[in-house]
Protein backbone atom coordinates (compact mmCIF):
# COMPACT_ATOMS: atom_id res chain seq x y z
CA UNK A 1 0.00 0.00 0.00
CA UNK A 2 1.38 3.40 -0.97
CA UNK A 3 2.08 5.94 1.81
CA UNK A 4 -0.86 8.29 2.31
CA UNK A 5 -3.47 5.92 0.91
CA UNK A 6 -4.50 4.56 4.31
CA UNK A 7 -4.95 8.02 5.94
CA UNK A 8 -7.06 9.04 2.93
CA UNK A 9 -9.32 5.99 3.39
CA UNK A 10 -9.62 6.78 7.10
CA UNK A 11 -10.60 10.37 6.26
CA UNK A 12 -13.28 9.20 3.84
CA UNK A 13 -14.65 6.77 6.43
CA UNK A 14 -14.68 9.51 9.07
CA UNK A 15 -16.57 11.93 6.83
CA UNK A 16 -19.04 9.20 5.96
CA UNK A 17 -19.66 8.42 9.64
CA UNK A 18 -20.04 12.12 10.46
CA UNK A 19 -22.55 12.64 7.65
CA UNK A 20 -24.47 9.55 8.73
CA UNK A 21 -24.47 10.74 12.35
CA UNK A 22 -25.73 14.17 11.24
CA UNK A 23 -28.57 12.54 9.28
CA UNK A 24 -29.54 10.41 12.28
CA UNK A 25 -29.46 13.47 14.54
CA UNK A 26 -31.75 15.40 12.19
CA UNK A 27 -34.15 12.45 11.95
CA UNK A 28 -34.25 12.00 15.73
CA UNK A 29 -34.84 15.73 16.24
CA UNK A 30 -37.61 15.72 13.66
CA UNK A 31 -39.20 12.67 15.30
CA UNK A 32 -39.17 14.36 18.70
CA UNK A 33 -40.80 17.46 17.24
CA UNK A 34 -43.51 15.30 15.66
CA UNK A 35 -44.07 13.41 18.93
CA UNK A 36 -44.67 16.54 21.03
CA UNK A 37 -48.38 16.84 20.02
CA UNK A 38 -48.93 13.16 20.76
CA UNK A 39 -47.26 13.53 24.15
CA UNK A 40 -49.41 16.56 24.95
CA UNK A 41 -52.56 14.68 23.92
CA UNK A 42 -51.63 11.70 26.10
CA UNK A 43 -50.73 13.65 29.26
CA UNK A 44 -53.77 15.91 28.84
CA UNK A 45 -55.97 12.82 28.86
CA UNK A 46 -54.65 12.07 32.37
CA UNK A 47 -55.06 15.57 33.84
CA UNK A 48 -57.81 17.25 35.74
CA UNK A 49 -59.91 19.90 34.00
CA UNK A 50 -58.06 22.66 35.89
CA UNK A 51 -54.65 21.32 34.81
CA UNK A 52 -55.67 21.14 31.16
CA UNK A 53 -56.79 24.77 31.19
CA UNK A 54 -53.94 26.09 33.35
CA UNK A 55 -51.44 28.67 32.10
CA UNK A 56 -48.54 28.21 31.78
CA UNK A 57 -49.23 24.68 30.51
CA UNK A 58 -48.65 21.69 32.77
CA UNK A 59 -46.44 19.15 31.04
CA UNK A 60 -46.56 16.49 33.77
CA UNK A 61 -49.82 16.02 35.70
CA UNK A 62 -49.66 15.94 39.49
CA UNK A 63 -52.01 12.97 39.60
CA UNK A 64 -52.31 10.52 36.72
CA UNK A 65 -56.09 10.21 36.34
CA UNK A 66 -56.46 6.94 34.46
CA UNK A 67 -60.14 6.96 35.36
CA UNK A 68 -60.63 9.70 32.76
CA UNK A 69 -60.77 6.96 30.15
CA UNK A 70 -63.48 5.07 32.02
CA UNK A 71 -65.47 8.24 32.71
CA UNK A 72 -65.13 9.30 29.09
CA UNK A 73 -66.38 5.94 27.84
CA UNK A 74 -69.48 5.96 30.05
CA UNK A 75 -70.26 9.66 29.70
CA UNK A 76 -71.54 9.04 26.17
CA UNK A 77 -72.62 5.82 24.37
CA UNK A 78 -69.11 5.08 23.11
CA UNK A 79 -69.81 1.36 22.87
CA UNK A 80 -72.43 2.20 20.26
CA UNK A 81 -70.03 4.61 18.56
CA UNK A 82 -67.37 1.88 18.43
CA UNK A 83 -69.79 -0.63 16.93
CA UNK A 84 -70.85 1.89 14.28
CA UNK A 85 -67.22 2.63 13.45
CA UNK A 86 -66.43 -1.06 13.03
CA UNK A 87 -69.50 -1.56 10.81
CA UNK A 88 -68.53 1.37 8.60
CA UNK A 89 -64.87 0.38 8.41
CA UNK A 90 -65.51 -3.27 7.55
CA UNK A 91 -68.45 -2.34 5.32
CA UNK A 92 -66.18 -0.11 3.27
CA UNK A 93 -63.01 -2.20 3.33
CA UNK A 94 -64.41 -5.48 1.97
CA UNK A 95 -66.23 -4.05 -1.09
CA UNK A 96 -63.39 -1.61 -1.83
CA UNK A 97 -60.79 -4.37 -1.79
CA UNK A 98 -62.91 -6.55 -4.07
CA UNK A 99 -63.99 -3.88 -6.53
CA UNK A 100 -60.67 -1.99 -6.76
CA UNK A 101 -58.58 -5.14 -7.20
CA UNK A 102 -60.98 -6.48 -9.84
CA UNK A 103 -61.05 -3.23 -11.83
CA UNK A 104 -57.30 -2.80 -11.44
CA UNK A 105 -56.81 -6.32 -12.80
CA UNK A 106 -58.99 -5.50 -15.81
CA UNK A 107 -57.00 -2.37 -16.61
CA UNK A 108 -53.68 -4.15 -16.14
CA UNK A 109 -54.34 -7.48 -17.89
CA UNK A 110 -57.37 -7.47 -20.17
CA UNK A 111 -57.37 -6.19 -23.75
CA UNK A 112 -60.16 -3.88 -24.81
CA UNK A 113 -60.59 -1.04 -27.26
CA UNK A 114 -60.38 2.33 -25.52
CA UNK A 115 -59.01 0.85 -22.30
CA UNK A 116 -56.28 3.48 -21.98
CA UNK A 117 -58.75 6.31 -22.59
CA UNK A 118 -61.02 4.94 -19.88
CA UNK A 119 -58.08 4.70 -17.51
CA UNK A 120 -57.14 8.33 -18.18
CA UNK A 121 -60.76 9.31 -17.56
CA UNK A 122 -60.62 7.42 -14.26
CA UNK A 123 -57.47 9.28 -13.25
CA UNK A 124 -59.10 12.57 -14.23
CA UNK A 125 -61.83 12.00 -11.63
CA UNK A 126 -59.14 12.12 -8.95
CA UNK A 127 -58.63 15.80 -9.80
CA UNK A 128 -62.29 16.58 -9.08
CA UNK A 129 -62.65 18.11 -5.58
CA UNK A 130 -65.09 16.33 -3.29
CA UNK A 131 -66.80 19.66 -2.60
CA UNK A 132 -68.03 19.68 -6.21
CA UNK A 133 -69.97 16.43 -5.86
CA UNK A 134 -70.98 16.78 -2.22
CA UNK A 135 -74.30 18.63 -2.71
CA UNK A 136 -75.51 16.65 -5.77
CA UNK A 137 -74.74 13.38 -3.97
CA UNK A 138 -76.58 14.49 -0.85
CA UNK A 139 -79.63 15.53 -2.87
CA UNK A 140 -79.62 12.23 -4.72
CA UNK A 141 -79.31 10.14 -1.55
CA UNK A 142 -81.97 12.24 0.18
CA UNK A 143 -84.46 11.67 -2.64
CA UNK A 144 -84.11 7.89 -2.38
CA UNK A 145 -84.35 7.99 1.44
CA UNK A 146 -80.80 6.99 2.29
CA UNK A 147 -80.00 9.92 4.58
CA UNK A 148 -79.68 8.85 8.23
CA UNK A 149 -78.59 5.38 7.16
CA UNK A 150 -75.20 3.78 6.54
CA UNK A 151 -76.02 3.20 2.85
CA UNK A 152 -74.51 6.46 1.48
CA UNK A 153 -71.29 5.60 3.30
CA UNK A 154 -71.06 1.91 2.33
CA UNK A 155 -72.81 1.36 -1.04
CA UNK A 156 -70.44 3.64 -3.07
CA UNK A 157 -67.56 1.41 -1.94
CA UNK A 158 -68.89 -1.35 -4.21
CA UNK A 159 -68.03 0.85 -7.20
CA UNK A 160 -64.40 1.37 -6.19
CA UNK A 161 -62.24 4.45 -5.70
CA UNK A 162 -59.88 5.81 -8.39
CA UNK A 163 -56.79 6.01 -6.17
CA UNK A 164 -56.98 2.37 -5.05
CA UNK A 165 -57.80 1.19 -8.58
CA UNK A 166 -54.72 3.03 -9.83
CA UNK A 167 -52.58 1.54 -7.06
CA UNK A 168 -53.71 -2.03 -7.73
CA UNK A 169 -53.35 -1.62 -11.50
CA UNK A 170 -49.77 -0.43 -11.09
CA UNK A 171 -48.93 -3.39 -8.85
CA UNK A 172 -50.57 -5.95 -11.14
CA UNK A 173 -48.43 -4.70 -14.03
CA UNK A 174 -45.29 -5.69 -12.11
CA UNK A 175 -46.42 -9.35 -12.15
CA UNK A 176 -45.02 -11.20 -15.21
CA UNK A 177 -47.63 -11.65 -17.93
CA UNK A 178 -46.14 -15.11 -18.65
CA UNK A 179 -47.97 -16.43 -15.57
CA UNK A 180 -51.30 -15.56 -17.18
CA UNK A 181 -50.31 -17.14 -20.48
CA UNK A 182 -49.17 -20.36 -18.79
CA UNK A 183 -52.44 -20.56 -16.87
CA UNK A 184 -54.48 -20.04 -20.04
CA UNK A 185 -52.60 -22.87 -21.75
CA UNK A 186 -53.64 -25.09 -18.84
CA UNK A 187 -57.26 -24.06 -19.39
CA UNK A 188 -57.68 -21.47 -16.64
CA UNK A 189 -60.33 -18.78 -17.11
CA UNK A 190 -59.75 -15.07 -16.52
CA UNK A 191 -61.50 -15.22 -13.16
CA UNK A 192 -59.43 -18.24 -12.13
CA UNK A 193 -56.22 -16.42 -13.04
CA UNK A 194 -57.33 -13.44 -10.98
CA UNK A 195 -58.33 -15.45 -7.91
CA UNK A 196 -55.69 -18.21 -7.89
CA UNK A 197 -52.63 -16.48 -9.35
CA UNK A 198 -52.82 -12.69 -9.21
CA UNK A 199 -54.40 -12.18 -5.79
CA UNK A 200 -52.03 -14.54 -3.88
CA UNK A 201 -49.07 -12.66 -5.40
CA UNK A 202 -50.58 -9.29 -4.47
CA UNK A 203 -50.59 -9.56 -0.68
CA UNK A 204 -48.29 -6.52 -0.19
CA UNK A 205 -50.49 -4.27 -2.35
CA UNK A 206 -53.67 -5.60 -0.76
CA UNK A 207 -52.22 -5.00 2.71
CA UNK A 208 -51.25 -1.45 1.78
CA UNK A 209 -54.73 -0.78 0.42
CA UNK A 210 -56.38 -2.24 3.53
CA UNK A 211 -54.25 -0.01 5.77
CA UNK A 212 -55.12 3.07 3.73
CA UNK A 213 -58.85 2.23 3.79
CA UNK A 214 -58.79 1.48 7.51
CA UNK A 215 -57.05 4.76 8.36
CA UNK A 216 -59.44 6.76 6.20
CA UNK A 217 -62.64 5.08 7.34
CA UNK A 218 -61.72 4.85 11.03
CA UNK A 219 -60.97 8.58 11.23
CA UNK A 220 -63.65 9.75 8.79
CA UNK A 221 -65.53 12.69 10.24
CA UNK A 222 -66.93 14.68 7.35
CA UNK A 223 -68.97 12.01 5.54
CA UNK A 224 -70.87 10.82 8.66
CA UNK A 225 -71.42 14.47 9.61
CA UNK A 226 -73.26 15.02 6.33
CA UNK A 227 -75.41 11.88 6.19
CA UNK A 228 -75.94 10.82 9.82
CA UNK A 229 -78.16 12.99 12.03
CA UNK A 230 -79.02 10.55 14.83
CA UNK A 231 -76.64 10.29 17.78
CA UNK A 232 -77.05 6.52 18.01
CA UNK A 233 -75.65 6.19 14.48
CA UNK A 234 -72.52 8.27 15.05
CA UNK A 235 -69.05 6.72 14.64
CA UNK A 236 -66.27 7.49 17.11
CA UNK A 237 -64.90 10.48 15.21
CA UNK A 238 -68.30 12.17 15.18
CA UNK A 239 -69.34 11.08 18.67
CA UNK A 240 -66.19 12.50 20.19
CA UNK A 241 -67.13 16.04 19.22
CA UNK A 242 -70.23 15.78 21.44
CA UNK A 243 -67.97 16.61 24.38
CA UNK A 244 -67.94 20.14 23.00
CA UNK A 245 -71.72 20.49 22.89
CA UNK A 246 -73.29 17.95 25.25
CA UNK A 247 -74.80 19.22 28.51
CA UNK A 248 -72.60 18.85 31.57
CA UNK A 249 -69.72 17.55 29.46
CA UNK A 250 -69.46 20.77 27.46
CA UNK A 251 -65.83 21.20 26.34
CA UNK A 252 -64.29 18.64 28.69
CA UNK A 253 -60.86 18.64 27.10
CA UNK A 254 -59.50 15.83 29.24
CA UNK A 255 -62.29 13.58 27.94
CA UNK A 256 -61.70 14.72 24.36
CA UNK A 257 -58.01 13.91 24.70
CA UNK A 258 -58.76 10.53 26.28
CA UNK A 259 -61.10 9.68 23.44
CA UNK A 260 -58.54 10.82 20.88
CA UNK A 261 -55.88 8.57 22.44
CA UNK A 262 -58.30 5.63 22.45
CA UNK A 263 -59.14 6.27 18.79
CA UNK A 264 -55.44 6.35 17.88
CA UNK A 265 -54.63 2.91 19.32
CA UNK A 266 -56.37 0.68 16.69
CA UNK A 267 -54.75 2.40 13.65
CA UNK A 268 -51.36 2.16 15.34
CA UNK A 269 -51.85 -1.56 15.98
CA UNK A 270 -53.03 -2.17 12.42
CA UNK A 271 -50.01 -0.37 11.00
CA UNK A 272 -47.62 -2.10 13.42
CA UNK A 273 -48.75 -5.62 12.52
CA UNK A 274 -49.01 -4.95 8.77
CA UNK A 275 -45.96 -2.71 8.48
CA UNK A 276 -43.85 -5.23 6.58
CA UNK A 277 -46.50 -5.82 3.90
CA UNK A 278 -47.47 -2.15 3.85
CA UNK A 279 -43.95 -0.86 3.18
CA UNK A 280 -43.33 -3.56 0.58
CA UNK A 281 -46.61 -2.78 -1.18
CA UNK A 282 -45.86 0.95 -1.30
CA UNK A 283 -42.33 0.24 -2.55
CA UNK A 284 -43.41 -2.09 -5.37
CA UNK A 285 -46.50 -0.18 -6.48
CA UNK A 286 -45.79 2.08 -9.42
CA UNK A 287 -42.58 0.43 -10.61
CA UNK A 288 -44.11 -0.19 -14.02
CA UNK A 289 -46.34 2.18 -15.88
Strand-helix topology:
Blueprint: H1 5-44, H2 49-53, H3 67-75, H4 78-109, H5 115-125, H6 130-143, H7 151-154, H8 162-172, H9 178-185, H10 190-201, H11 203-218, H12 222-227, H13 236-239, H14 253-273, H15 275-284
Helix pairs in contact: 3-14, 4-8, 4-11, 11-14, 11-15
What is the strand tally? 0
Largest sheet report: none
Overall domain count: 2
Between the first and last Cα atoms, what is the distance in angstroms? Answer: 49 Å
Defining traits:
289 residues; mainly alpha; MetI-like fold; 2 domains; 70% helix; 0% strand; flat
Report on the structure:
The protein has 289 residues and is mostly helical. It folds into two domains: 5-44; 67-284, MetI-like fold (Orthogonal Bundle), CATH 1.10.3720. The chain is 70% helix and 0% strand. It is built from 15 helices and no strands. Helix 4 packs across helix 8 (162-172), helix 4 (78-109) runs antiparallel to helix 11 and helix 11 (203-218) crosses helix 15 (275-284). The longest helix has 40 residues, at 5-44. The chain is flat. The model has no long low-confidence stretch (mean pLDDT 84).
